[in-house]
Design a protein that fits this description.
The chain has 66 residues and is mainly α. It has one helix at 2-63.
Amino acid sequence: MNKVQHQADVLKQVGEKERGRRKEYQETMFEQRAMKLAELDYVRKIDTENVKNEEMLQTLKNQRPF
């Protein structure tokens, strides 16, 4: 009976350790995903601002008489 109980305890410990690893991995993946989304949003904002700036420059160039 002790052997069966010991095996059950070992299996429980292994299961808990595996759940901990999966949780840690999932948290890491969420953090990486959040960082990538923030980076993409930042790049998108920069691109949008660059387009606006180009449009403004073109408008100013067209308004000036040479």
